[in-house]
């Protein structure tokens, strides 16, 4: 339950602190005094979106803080899953900075709006005037029936599995689309891969083959020049080897006269040795050179295979071909892995589908077993509220496909008068009837839910007199199970509250601000008397107010 609400710099509120009690609290005040501002501030601290227009002074920070006693409501698991510190007296704070940035805190730990909203839904239900229209929504009708039927845990299990099923289904569709796109070209890619695998490519092969082909193609020229070079080295008369021997003999004779001449001698010896080595290699190369037409054809064919592959794949090196080969291999392997993932997801989704079908069947059976009893309870309350001939029928039908609520469709049918057939609630109920029906729904939910706080924002719209008195009695009974706060214009309801707060405007130094205070017993008599007769209090209005309070 809410124990304290503090607001600063919000709408018409400069600074306000309100202590709230368990039981039935009433909030009254003239139209425009600021009752809706209180709800707006509470909405922000429960996770609604905010903007700078919420701030009274846009140069100052807006702070809204609510204290909750949550000891009896079993919310430890929420705090554990959100990694937040649990406290029986939990504080939720919302700050809106002059920059427009919003910050949220639970027990002084920063949280995002989603976490704040999730906790807020477990703490407070604010029934605004327009919410009466939600009676016609499937979601609200299922919420009512499932709360009454004790389906809350089943619904949570179903919703969790349904989210998983839908996520997997979306992923499965995406993967199947990827697979279809790959399979369009899969055959051609496999052919290309087989062709590259058969080619058995090696990294430096092309360069070696081109060099080998060049040697084979010019074998005669190579051999002729090798032999000529070898002859020039070994010629008896003018060969390099003999000439160098003569040069060495001449220098050797003077090598002992200086280090420079000795250096010449050493260098000439090195050249002579190198020339001898070259001559030997020239001879070996010359003997090895053979014009092999068959080998030349083999090398040429091999090179042609490589160049054809390069042309097909629009590349110029064997390295690039090997890269393409690897990509095609990985793609083929990836397709196989994709098929494996698709098969796994299909099996998982099939199992989830079976579990969802079973849960949906359980939900349906419990709903069928509770719908008539729920209708009867709503009728009993409406009879107390001046609708003796009201009848409800919950039309629950199995649907073909799974939906957010199981495999059911629902329609809340209503008849307010004898002799009138059932019709959808949204088509037949008047504004005053809808208010009473909504109170009946909330009163029923209060018995089967564990919600700490319920706030009615003028749920009594369209009713008066004895009906208002009956509504007040029902609210009083509800407040035995939860903290109930009602914003009202009806004295019959205001008189039933355990505590009565008044919202009013105060003008100071040309500035208007909204204030709220807890009324004393005498002030409360006067407030209810004003609600009965207007601003001029009469003795009869005061006596009537005292009678209502007593």
What does this structure look like?
The chain is an alpha/beta fold. Among the domains are: 1-125 and 497-519, P-loop containing nucleotide triphosphate hydrolases (Rossmann fold, 3-Layer(aba) Sandwich); 181-336, no CATH class. Helix content is 57%, strand content 19%. The strands form three sheets. A six-stranded antiparallel sheet has the order 2-1-4-5-6-7, covered by helices on one side. A six-stranded mixed sheet has the order 8-12-13-3-14-15. One of its GO terms (cellular component) is bacterial nucleoid. Keywords: ATP-binding, Coiled coil, DNA damage, DNA repair, Nucleotide-binding. This is DNA repair protein RecN.
Strand order of the largest sheet: 2-1-4-5-6-7
Regions with little confidence, pLDDT below 50 for 5+ residues = none
- Assign the structural class, choosing from mainly alpha, mainly beta, alpha/beta, alpha+beta, or little secondary structure: alpha/beta
Mean pLDDT score: 86
Beginning-to-end CA distance, first to last residue: 27 Å
Helix content: 55-70%
- The percent range for strand residues is 15-25%
Helix segment count?
17
Shape descriptor reads: elongated
How many strands?
15
Roughly how many Å is the radius of gyration? 47 Å
Largest sheet: 6 strands, antiparallel
